[in-house]
Amino acid sequence: MLMGKVPIVALCGFLGSGKTTLLRRWRRDEELRDTALIVHDLSDLGIDAELLSAEEKTPKAGTLVDRVAALHGKHAREQLHDSLGTALNQICELEPPPSIVLSESTGAARPWPLIKALTQDNRFILRHFIVTVDSLNLHRDFEDGRLLAKEPNISQDAALCRAAEAIAEQIAFTSVIILTKIDTVPKSAVDAQVRHLQQIQPRATIALSAQAGLLLPQLESVAPPDLLTLSKRADQLNLIQQNSTTENVEAMIFRDPRPFHPQRLHEACCNKLGTGLYRTKGFLWLASRPGHVLLWQQSGSQISLELSGLWRAEIVKNQDGKLLPEEVDQLRDRLKTEHSIFGDRHNELTIIGMEADRNGFMSELQNALCTEQEIADWQAGASFSDPWPKSVRRSD
Questions:
Q1: What residues are paired with 250 via a beta bridge?
Q2: What is the total count of domains within the chain?
Q3: CATH code of the domain containing 288
Q4: Count of CA atoms in the C-beta half-sphere (13 A) of 37
Q5: For 254-277, what is each residue's pLDDT tens digit?
Q6: CB 62 within 8 A of CB 47
Q7: Separation CA 260–CA 359 (nearest Å)
């Protein structure tokens, strides 16, 4: 602890830049076992809180469970300051007390309101304000940072320019920039990105990370942010009275129990991802892979699928014979309240971005669901064309 206060490490960064991946890696370190987490999510789903918590279900919004404060939905937007104040007070009552607090913000967070909310309780001190930047997205969509630095002859795409402004604003307040996924782009691109990031924030330490390989102790030598300096910066940039999240970037939720047709979902992603669709994240299932709980993550032009587990409706079949009869009976009892055809299988996705692109992709997702006839074919054991990679990454 610094000066008897609990240090807070704030992890900011635009949508899909690798914040949750870093936190999942950091939490495996023995020294961070007693850490308390504060997780902000623009969506009401709170997927990140679920991924970081040991709870089987998403923690209720505004609550501290398993040392994870789930501040999603209105708690990350309209009630940010008050909800953070409540969470910090609850963290002070934990036993054993945490040696550090890790805070993951929504990618649409405005930095100055977030910093003010995190520093409202004098029992805590802001140790780092870190901004993650996705090297692959920076390379594909932001001209290796030239769009962020507003260099001449750059893209005039309105949605990308809006995202670039949000990223640049976060960087203006950071003391550490973590450039993630550097193993996915050429070294020459990484070098160019570092130059452009230094142009935006010359005082920041820039750390490079491949596959969440950067550890928190590696930043120990970096000095804490100076709040007075940041306050003056907010005043100079006319950001004192800004909302807690970026304007015109909102979230909507897609829910449906029917399986996705893998071919139509793939075509929608290849042809209908607008530049204003900044982030989609959640759990889904494909008719071709009925047993797999798939964690879906899209940011910009990137899409990833992780195998998060198996649906109970698949486990109850006990095809490997590892379950005891009483365990099968318990699963069957739990499934009695689920869908009569699909069991606990369902799709639940957060869609974040500009209104037109959100609505357009929502419509494409509806069209990618299996029809009644395709569901009947699935029940009869029919196969489905599946262009998605056969090797799916397993999530921890």
A1: 353
A2: 2
A3: 3.30.1220.10
A4: 29
A5: 999 999 999 999 999 988 888 999
A6: no
A7: 18
